Amino acid sequence: MLVARPVILLLAILIASSNGANILGLFSSHSPSHLIIHMSVAKTLAEAGHNVTVVSMLPPKVTHKDIHVIVIPVTDEQEKVIENQMSEMASQRNSIISTLNRLMNGMDVMINSQADLLSHPQFQQIYDTKFDLMIMGYFLNEFQLGVAAKLKVPVIIDWMNAPMLAIDEFTGNPTEVSYVPNIGTTATPPMGFLKRAENLAKHLFLKYMMSALLSKSERIYEEKFGNDKSLPSLSEAKKNISLAFVNAHLISEGPIRPLVPAMVEIGGIQVKDKPSPLPKDIDEFLSKSTQGAILLSLGSNVKSSSIKPEIVQSIFKVLSGLKLNVIWKWEDPKNTPGSSPNILYKKWLPQDDILAHPNTKLFITHAGKGGITEAQYHGVPMVALPIFGDQISNAQAMEKSGYGLALDLLSITEESLSKALNEVLENKKYEEAVGKFSALYRDRPFSAKQAVVYWTEYVLRHKGARHLQSPVVHMNFIELNNIDVHALIIAILVLVILLLRLVVKFVWNKLCSKSKCTSNKSKKQKKP
Length: 528
Ligand SMILES: *[C@@H]1O[C@H](CO)[C@@H](O)[C@H](O)[C@H]1NC(C)=O
Ligand SMILES: *[C@@H]1O[C@H](CO)[C@@H](O)[C@H](O)[C@H]1NC(C)=O
Hints:
GO molecular function, one term: UDP-glycosyltransferase activity
Signal peptide: 1-20
CATH class of the largest domain: Alpha Beta
Low-confidence stretches: none
Structural class: alpha/beta
Largest sheet: 7 strands, parallel
Helix content: 40-55%
Bound molecules: 2-acetamido-2-deoxy-beta-D-glucopyranose
Distance between the termini: 101 Å
Number of strands: 13
Mean pLDDT: 90
CATH architecture of the largest domain: 3-Layer(aba) Sandwich
Family: Belongs to the UDP-glycosyltransferase family.
Keywords: Glycosyltransferase, Membrane, Signal, Transferase, Transmembrane, Transmembrane helix
Radius of gyration: 29 Å
InterPro entries: UDP-glycosyltransferase, UDP_glucos_trans
Strand order of the largest sheet: 3-2-1-4-5-6-7
């Protein structure tokens, strides 16, 4: 690693000069995959010598001996609601709009629990520590900006996906509707007329939904922080965000679009530079997979058991008939879909390390952003079985890029699954395409980890990065769209036209009275 030397030197100097800040990570999204991304950021900072304290609702899978983790779980009742909602979602088709709608109604516990957390006695403790910075994992939780205001510290937002509407608004980044597909639209830019119309309609609808969710956030903020008059309003606190980390790398993933300097790309932060040693059983299983191995994981939100048994049986029949070995993520070891010498069931998997293994030939995934990123990083082709939310568009984008095939989980049959698996395993074009992506994805001036350390310490050194903010953050809708200026121009134009009309009329009348006008109009006028 010759190129890395100056960078390492530079980093060493930076680390030495910022000697361990106290950083609070507030990661209250009730989703294990979000937590993996946020914890990877926290871990990177702990490794750089910072004193990181994390508050989460789930026990994190990624961790570090020096991170102080405070887990404040949701109540049993809330847990039940979330689980029911998740399995309901697993049994139907879900768009981003229906998912947001659900978050506003039946599943609002995902937001409310993040509000309840703030009043928990264990959370109140954090106000006793003098922090230097807060990193907030974003999940419709704007109201938590009150914590940073109360601690009087700068804020960095961490988002587990490519930049989207809310993150654009935090940073004043332009949301380009005519050529950047939003999270609800699947398209490869440039978009034709119909796609652009679809994207605009969805954009407006998303904007409406997000503003409804923001009003909810404002109500919660008022409730939690409203009685402390020394604190700013939520809209003021929002203007104090220094920068946002987004889990993306547009140069390799697209779409190419402008990003303001406060939007920092850390795509692949959760991927290890070097794979860790695998647990013994998995290592042996993979090593003896001379024909190659398949990794199957349908994610961490949906329990395998909430997928229809018929579908699970179809998957099992196809996989047990393969020559390749299969590692299947399955939560209940007593109740597996069936036993077969080529299938190893595991409750929890070091997914990244398995994907890094040279014998891993294919990844069957629910198309969560995290898993897709890891497979793309390691150049492993995929068969996607998306379930809800952004998974559907992730899967379609993956297929469009040529890294594998996407099937609809609810309608797969033995034939369709078997056909897709054979195609991706036998046709080399998928492996080649994802291999090419992998090379582009790793080719950066700053690795994701270096970017996290550099920009976090940048914000620490300058005690917030307001100078980095786009002026858009401080402008309202009228100013941003120059509506007042346009209104003035139109008013002047209208005035000029009215004046001109008056002048013309005046001159006309003058001329008429002097020289007996002969036009029809004036004749008519003279009749009476
Ligand atoms: C590290 O953070 C914890 C809070 O989690 C705090 O109690 C402790 O004092 C901090 N250590 C230093 C050296 O500041
Ligand atoms: C904004 O952040 C700075 C640190 O960058 C902090 O001192 C200040 O109190 C914050 N102000 C508000 C309104 O949150």
